[in-house]
Amino acid sequence: MSTIQRRGVTARYSDAAVFNGVIYLAGMVPESDATDIRGQTADVLGQIDAHLAALGSDKTRLLRVQIYLADIDDIGAMNEVWDAWVVSDQAPPRATVQARLGDPGWKIEMVATAAQR
Fold first, then answer.
1. How far apart are CA 44 and CA 110, in angstroms?
2. Cα separations (Å) of 40 from 11, 19, 96?
3. Which residue segment(s) compose the domain that 56 sits in?
4. Binning pLDDT at 50, 70 and 90, where does residue 117 land?
5. Which sign, positive or negative, has the C-alpha torsion 8, 14, 15, 19?
6. Residues 27, 29, 31, 37: is their CA dihedral positive or negative?
7. How confident is the model at residue 36 (pLDDT cuts 50, 70, 90)?
8. By C-alpha distance, which of 60, 1, 57, 2 is closest to 24?
9. CA 51 centroid distance within chain
10. Intra-chain end-to-end CA distance of the chain, in Å
11. Backbone angles phi, psi at 105, to 5 degrees
12. pLDDT, tens digit, 9 for 90 and up, residues 51-94
């Protein structure tokens, strides 16, 4: 039986779980709400990079990304940052929707799933 590895465990959630070589990241939100959608997107993508690296993976191994925007009108600016970050021939399946986020200053939240190396 495979074991589940958890990282960044709190009483309420884990930052990540790994099972059978698949990494499941919790929703990543910006460290600061003081920036615009471009800055917040770059912040969240940097967090994804760091979590994946710590778990033996990287953005080329992404299996799926779900993006939640507080305002869907921000999708163009968010896509500019995404397009500069994602490896074009390794772009994962992705969904982007408008959602009500937990903090009024957050403009974006992302959930990612990736394969380990």
1. 7
2. 26, 29, 15
3. 5-115
4. confident
5. positive
6. positive
7. very high
8. 57
9. 9
10. 20
11. -85, -15
12. 999 999 999 999 999 999 999 999 999 999 999 999 999 999 99
Nearest-angstrom CA–CA distance, 45 and 110 = 8
Please give the Cα distance from 40 to 33 (Å, whole number).
7
The 10s digit of each residue's pLDDT in 95-110 is 999 999 988 899 999 9
Structure tokens at 91: 């772009």
User: Would you say how long the chain is, in residues?
Assistant: 117
For residue 1, pLDDT beyond 70: no
Contacts of residue 115, defined as CB under 8 A and 6 or more positions apart, other chains included, come to: 21, 22, 23, 57, 61, 63
In this structure, what is the dihedral angle of CA atoms 116, 49, 60, 114, given to the nearest 10 degrees? 40
Distance of alpha carbon 31 from alpha carbon 47, whole angstroms: 9
**Cα(65)–Cα(90) distance, rounded to whole angstroms?**
12
* pLDDT at res. 2: 79
CATH assignment at residue 30 = 3.30.1330.40
Domain count, the chain: 1
